[in-house]
Amino acid sequence: MPDISVQRIERDLLALSKFGYNEADKGIYRQGFSDVDMEARRWVMNLMEELGMETRMDGAGNVIGRYGPKDKPAVMVGSHLDTVPAGGLFDGALGVMAGIECVRAIKENDIELDYPIEIVGTAEEEGRFGGMLGAQALAGCLTMDWLEGAKDANGVLLKEAMAAHGMNHLDALHAYRNRENLRAFIELHVEQGPVLEAKEKTIGVVDGISGVFKWMVRLIGKADHAGTAPMDMRSDAFLGLADFAHEIQRIIDEEGTDRSRITIGHVALKPGFPHTVPGEVDFTIVGRDLDGEVMKGLANACRRVLSSIARKHRLMFEYEQMSWLEPQYCSGKVTDLIEANTKKRGYSYMRMPSGAGHDVQFLARVTDAGLIFVPSVKGVSHAPDEWTHWVDVERGANVLLDCVIDLAKE
């Protein structure tokens, strides 16, 4: 069976990492629709053209290179090209560079294809503007209202950021693909967690993407003097938060599964002065599970517990649901193919869910889609010290190559 060249993948990843590299903290700053992001997209398109691929950028900013027979549904391969601030070398980029290497290996081995391959570098997956724009566009999951109003944390509108690069944000609505022109989608990605390394497995065969809900929660009490307000007469908003944090594991034990996650990731105390009892606390709750009904159970339990705690501490409880993404299972056909090719290669593997979101969760709505994980050292991701050993990159890319060839054959 043919093999990829991990040396070429390494070369391409290191070259791509220069777009947005920050010498001070060694991180990569390539946020969606920044100048450097668009420069990187043009560079990737040139790389594709050197292989004889037909390239284009669609209305959502996805860069696509097509290789093989014309006028047939394509096997799409890839991931995203943008990064979080101070991101790492592999997140997203590995899936695109490995896809390009698959085309090289297919060309070098004169492998005849019955269906074309499309390598995609999706746009704005990391959520600068609050979504996964490129994948959502491909899956037809965008609305005009959202495109008009989406903005980043600094108040920059998506439509303004796209216009700065000569793009019309409404053209993203024309990027939609369906089963008539997509045969399958497959993504290679670093795990971004510690499980594969801890279990000493080479390949993660991902069976689904966890759903996610995000709440903004506010507990309102009464600010008081920290020295004069008796402990039993306070309406301390922080104590309400602390009590809820202690209840998280019980909520999961009673309502969740071993795949459930509840996280308080951001907290703001008001007035936030050392000698003042906090009169208000604003915080986020993010819940995840691979089962939609379990997610509802977790959410309902969070609401009940917060209401009870608010009464106990004489607080008002308010919350706003910022987003709710349903879980998405991968295609059994593609997942079984990944497992079979991993076995053929003799690599160790495990079936597992993805707790993080990926492009595949939207492409799975319009075609047979699958996701391959390779280990992340110490589970680190979204950071400059994100790392995956090159031997694991090679093995993951070889499984990807085998699957792409199989999917592109009758």
Automatic annotation (TrEMBL):
Gene3D superfamilies linked: 3.30.70.360, Zn peptidases
Bilayer-crossing regions: none
Pfam families from the UniProt entry: Peptidase_M20
InterPro entries from the UniProt entry: Amidase_Cbmase, ArgE/DapE_CS, Bact_exopeptidase_dim_dom, Peptidase_M20
Source organism superkingdom: Bacteria
Keyword hit for Hydrolase: yes
Keywords: Hydrolase, Metal-binding, Zinc
Example GO molecular function: hydrolase activity, acting on carbon-nitrogen (but not peptide) bonds, in linear amidines
Residues that, per the record, bind Zn(2+) 1: 80, 91, 189
Keyword Hydrolase assigned: yes
Family under the similarity heading: Belongs to the peptidase M20 family.
Protein name, per record: N-carbamoyl-L-amino-acid hydrolase
Higher taxonomy: Bacteria, Pseudomonadati, Pseudomonadota, Alphaproteobacteria, Kordiimonadales
